[in-house]
Amino acid sequence: MAATKTTLPMAKALNESLRKALETDPKVLIMGEDVGKLGGVFRITDGLQKDFGEGRVIDTPLAESGIVGTAIGMALRGYRPVVEIQFDGFVFPAYDQIVTQLAKMHARALGKVKLPVVVRIPYGGGIGAVEHHSESPEALFAHVAGLKCVSPSNPSDAYWMLQQAIQSDDPVIFFEPKRRYWDKGEVDTEAIPGPLHKAVVARPGTDLTLVAYGPMVKTCLEAAAAAEEEGKSLEVVDLRSISPLDFDTVQESVERTGRLVVVHEAPVFFGSGAELAARITERCFYHLEAPVLRVGGFHAPYPPARLEEEYLPNLDRVLEAVDRALAY
């Protein structure tokens, strides 16, 4: 019997997940700029057009609104399009199509129409890129009713969550943390995955809860390891899903630890951490030993590459928030 567990970088795990989806369902299509012959700028779709043909892996014009609009039409005809947006900052020409059509058609049709479209967006910084190549726009989409937004933090979740997103009858915005594309991890291709929108405890602890998703989960795990050397026990919760949010798992953790720090790359101002902080404050008011604190990017345009290390939340900024919370 062939082994089902293998060690893969996240980029390869996503590639294998797309391959599996194409093999399993002839209605699955991949569309986007340079996804075919080039295999995508990050090579996520490498080799797929060669193996499945130009009718299933489609190189599109440089027109994000047209790409998403075409995907909506194809979904109405029974297909399951997977759209790649080349970089996070390029999604905005398609924002109108996503929020006024893709997100609303199901409700507009009183449930009679389904739009099983996945919009893949490489997001976040840390790769030394130029303007509009390192942004974190997830809160803009999470705010829109009718869209589901998820983000894996490791290769195993990347493999399984992408397949679950493709199988969903609802539109899913799939945020891929591009600076984690080359991080390796074990992937079991025969595992039974948990629910797509369920958070997981990535590391148990007793003194404080760190909550993150996507690229910041690794940073929080590193912070928990560093804090352990100083005798502090930090629990790390990987949200995995940004909308819907699994408040229950976070609540259970905070009821155990009494403290919460929420971490994300996106600016703190009106970020997804604000919703989580408000809801947990409501639910856990009598369990909290300190205010819920947030760590994230600054309320400023993403800076040039030489300054991004100052902009991005890092180990020190997370640990500083942990110390503030534990000082109460």
Question: What brief labels describe this structure?
Answer:
35% helix; 328 residues; globular; Transketolase-like_Pyr-bd; five-stranded mixed beta sheet; 14 strands
Distance between the termini: 55 Å
Helical segment tally? 12
- Major β-sheet annotation: 7 strands, mixed
Q: Order of strands in the sheet with the most strands?
A: 3-2-4-5-7-6-12
Low-confidence stretches: none
| C-alpha-based Rg, rounded | 20 Å
Mean pLDDT: 97
- Beta content comes to 15-25%
Helices and strands, in order, run as EHEHEHEHHEHEHEEEEHEEHEHEHH
Number of strands: 14
Pfam families: Transket_pyr (PF02779), Transketolase_C (PF02780)
Keywords: Oxidoreductase, Thiamine pyrophosphate
Protein name: Alpha-ketoacid dehydrogenase subunit beta
Cofactor: thiamine diphosphate
